[in-house]
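re: ur question from earlier - yeah i can do the single chain one, its not a big deal. heres the input i used so u can compare w yours
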Amino acid sequence: MLWPFNRFRNPTVPRGTIEAIYGMIVAQAREPAFYASLGVRDTVNGRFDMLILHLWLVLRRLQAVEGGNSMSQALFDRFCADMDDNLREMGVGDLTVPKRMQAFGEAFYGRSAAYDLAFEAGDEELAQALSKNVFNGEAVDGARALASYVREASSGLAKLAEEAVRKGAWTFPQPMAASQGGAS
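and the output i got, formated as tokens:
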């Protein structure tokens, strides 16, 4: 039976897999080391920035996976549903939710484009993009450590077999191990 409000437009993508992957993204974005050790602001905005960063990492990896476009769309839809739910739980009114959702979308696409360009340009460019978007132009050392983490996380995702990516059978590295050049 099809439900009238299918949150995931593509029924070929298993909902449980999308839930598991999105759950990993959210859990990693909440990893205390980002806030305690790397200096990411432990605020709603700081956590949102970390959520976008991890979503971007996964979506970037899905580009090279067969069926990745469908998974990417389902994962992005899950992110949007989560943001909508959070706004409503915070008491944001029905008339304001669409405007806030548009702002979330603009933030996601703007940061994704900046991260894509910076990732290809080099380590210092990536650190600068992270400094601007995550640290409000401050905490250059934290941004460099976060850039190191992003490189390690991306490398780990790139090494995964497509089947592992499609099934969500992987984990992110620990932030401090990555920022210090170690593996986890």
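DSSP finds nine helices and no strands in the chain. not sure if urs matches, ping me
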